[in-house]
Structures are given as structure tokens and as C-alpha cells.
From TrEMBL:
Name of the protein described by the UniProt record: FNIP repeat-containing protein cigB
InterPro entries per record: FP_C
Top-level lineage group: Eukaryota
FP protein C-terminal domain sequence ranges: 166-218
Organism encoding this protein: Lygus hesperus
This protein's encoding gene: cigB
Keyword list, A-Z: Coiled coil
Coiled-coil stretches noted in the UniProt entry, renumbered to this chain: 5-46
Amino acid sequence: KLKRLDKINDDVNELKESVKFISDQYDDYTVKMDQMQIQVNQMEVRMIKKDLVIDSLLAKVSDLEKKNRVNQIEINGVPETVNENCVAIVEDIKKELLPDAVIVIKNAHRVGQRRAGFNRSIVAELDKEGNRQLMTDTARKSKTLNAAKLHNSWPNQPIYVADYLTSYARELLFKAKLRAKEKNYKYVWVKHMNVFVKKDEETKQAITIKKLEDLNKII
């Protein structure tokens, strides 16, 4: 009986040692996992900071590009035809919107790759920034500007005149619209090549979206 008890005690002691070993191993594993999580968190913070720096640089580049576009407008909805005269088309649009205004169309051309069944945008350079703003503001308020008014063989489809945004500003506008929809904001618009967002008619102050970080202001 004593031998059996000794054997049981030995087994119990071995079991205790095994449990202690496993427990120590688990503690070491937990410590290592905690250390790894800290490292991952630190890397995430560094990546966020890096992304913010990159976004800030992209915003600055976009601001520089805007200076080259202060007199330019972008027109969508105009059917594309062979041997068309884009300057004449823009002049006709100007006459529809502002028949008495003196606005010089310095040049105009289509932008983007040709695609079947798709009308490319027309980009036009005007004589001064004030006229760019005048045309875009008037077009935004117009309810009657359409292709059929310019040419009787063209469809009765709306024509849109807007600021010629940089690719970065387009991304801001797209993401601002998504965020505004998610947060139930009613108004997203562009003025002076900047993106603005407003909750509703009762909201006095609009939010200016100049960089991706500003999207977090839409709450």
C-alpha cells in the first residue's frame, strides 16, 4: 500500500510539474503575443501618420494644379461628333446661359479616351477666373440647358457646366458624397474648385473638404 501511495504521489508531482510547465509556456506565449500586438499597434500608428503625410502632399499638389485651372470649365452631356468645333460649342452654351455677357473662349477640346457610346467631356479655357465662376454658377441654377437647344438633331439631354477639378479633388468629391449619404447630409457641392458639405437647410456653416482627413468632420 505504501508503494502504491508513493507511486500516486510521484504521479501527482509529475502532473503538477507538467501543469506548471504548460502554465509557464502559456504565460510566455501570452507575453510574446502582447508584445507582438504592441508592435502591430505601433506599425498601424506609423502607417496612419505616413498616410496623412502622403495625403497632405497630394492636397498641396492639387492646390498647385488648381492654379493652372482657375479659368477652365468642364462640360458634360454634349454629343461628340466628327470634325466638331469645341470652341463654337462652348460659345453656343455661353449664349444660352449668358447671352449679354462678354466672355472669351480661348480654347476648348475633348479630354479622356474615346469609348463607343460615350461622350467625352469638353474642357474650355475662358479669359478670366470671374467668367469661369459666372458660367458655372449660372449653369448650376439653369433648369433648361440641354443638348437639343444647341443642335436640333441632338437629344434632349441635360448639359452640365462645372469647375475642371483635379483628380484629387474628384476623389474628395466622390468620397464626400458617399460619406454624406452615410451620415444623412443633404448637400454636397463644388465652388471655387473646393468641395463643401452641409447637413441641411438649418445648418449655417458648411464643411470644407480640402483633404481626406476632413471627411471625418462629416459626423
